[in-house]
Structures are given as C-alpha cells and as structure tokens.
Amino acid sequence: MEIIGIDIGATGIKAAIVDTEKGEFLTERKKLDTPIGGKPKDILKVIKRLVDHFEWKGKIGCGFPGIIKDGVVKSTANISKTWMNMPVSEYFSKETGCSFSVANDADLAGLAAVSFGKGKGVMGTLIFITIGTGLGSGIFLDGKLVPNTEMGHLYYKKSVFEHYASNSARKKKEMSWAVWAKELSAFLNHLDLLFSPNMILLGGGVSKKFDEWGKYLDTSVNVSAADLQNDAGIIGAAMLALKS
Ligand code: BGC
Predict the structure, then answer these.
(1) Residue 231 to residues 122, 185, 234, Cα–Cα distance (Å)
(2) pLDDT at site 243
C-alpha cells in the first residue's frame, strides 16, 4: 500500500510516500525546517504544506518526539511544552482532512528496523536507539513493540542520559568522539543491565559516522549501526498508519 510517512524532529520535518510492502520510498524525501519554538499551530502549518506537496488525501502516519498514548502527547522534552496533553492524532486529522496516526518517533524508526532492516527476524529483546537532539528508544520483544519506553530519560550523573549521550549533548559539551562514546557506552551498559538485550541498533544521523566512533565503544552488548538511517522514521510512520 502507498502511505505517507512523516517524521517530526527537533530540526526538520521529513516526509515521503512509502511502499509499505517493500519499506521503500516511492518519492523523493521532502524536508522542511521545524519552526522555532515548535508550537502546535506552527508545526501544523508545515504538516499542511507537506500534505499539499504530495497532493495527499489518504492515510498518514507520523512520528512525534515525545510519549504518545492513545493519540495524546504525554511528554515534551524536545518540543514546545504547549503540546502536553494535546490529542495530536485528532488535531492533525481534523485540520488536514486526512486520517492521521501518530506515535513516538523512536518506536516508529525501530518498527522500520525490525520490519525491513537489521532487526528483521531477531527474536528475544531488541532495543533501537535514536541518537539526535534527543535520545529515543524503542524496545521489541520477538519483533513486537513495547511502546513509549523513554530510556534516554533514565537518571545519570544527577541528570539524564539524554544530556550526555545524545548528539546534541556531544556538540554542546564539545566532546571528542572518544569522550562521547564513553557516555554512550555507559548508557548501553545500563540498558544491558536492565534488559540483557540480544541486539541494540543505533539510529539517527550520527549513526552514519559509526566507522569514526564505533571503535571507542566499551561494551559487551551486541551493538551496531542501524541501516535505513534517515529513512527509518518515515518508513515506520507509514507502517503505523497501515496497521490503523
Ligand atoms: C523524547 C523521546 C524521543 C526522543 C527522540 C526524547 O527527548 O523524550 O520521546 O523519542 O527524544 O526524538
């Protein structure tokens, strides 16, 4: 089936029409800037531009950088606080006239990885981590998602792992790859302690540079860079809409 997937990120909002059987794009990816402040009505304007760009009337799947429970926003670490408790699926559906399904961005990128990427067919516990402005997580047991796990917000050094192991933290604290990889290793080892995962996949833009920093990881976990990379969030979003 052909469905639009949209991935709302802290810096960009990306979309493409996806072939949900093959997990491939049928169009070029269209990326627009996330409006400064990330307020609902400003993000809606961008969503409407994307819907118009693809001249779309059907189902749309959408990843959002926060907890989404039954279509309602339940956390706002990296987006305007005014989203809190908003029924985002309903809001986008009503305002665009398209049927929207919205879920957590990391959960959806992970869904693409277990359906079409390196996570396909992996039994036991698989953890998908997105490393970007935030540190997102998707946990799968025998390929089935346990939603909204938010592992990046586990406590670490009187703060949370996201403030040390995300890509934005690396840039902000001007960490070298080796120093940052130490923080990421602490995160991965903590996940190992909690879940003993069979596999951890690392996604997000920085995973493209895995060759540069992967060698500094200090962990015995079975960890590797995810494939599909920037496309995963969009493909997973389209798959969500397929199921709903
Ligand atoms: C949010 C998560 C999200 C991640 C990646 C975190 O700050 O709490 O819900 O998945 O960023 O966008």
Answers:
(1) 20, 25, 6
(2) 85
Q: Verify whether ligand 1 is closer than 6 Å to residue 71 (CB atom).
A: no
Strands 59-64 and 2-8: parallel
Instruction: Report the alpha-carbon distance of residue 11 to residue 132 in Å, rounded.
Output: 10
Question: In Å, how far are 25, 61, 78, 91, 114 from 190, measured between CA atoms?
Answer: 35, 32, 23, 37, 22
Instruction: Give 74 Cα–ligand 1 centroid separation in angstroms.
Output: 11
- Could you tell me the domains of the chain? 2-107+232-243 (3.30.420.40), 122-226 (3.30.420.40)
Residue ranges of the chain with per-residue pLDDT less than 50: none
178-201 pLDDT, tens digit per residue, is 999 999 999 999 999 999 999 999
Concatenated DSSP letters for 160-206? ETHHHHSHHHHHHTT--HHHHHHHHHHHHHHHHHHH--SEEEEESGG
User: Which single residue is written with the structure tokens 């199921």?
Assistant: 243
Q: What are phi and psi of 21, to 5 degrees?
A: -80, -40
CA 134 to ligand 1 centroid distance, Å = 5
What's the gap in Å between 66 CA and the centre of ligand 1? 5
Neighbours of 81 (CB within 10 A): 9
Q: Is the pTM of this model over 0.85?
A: yes
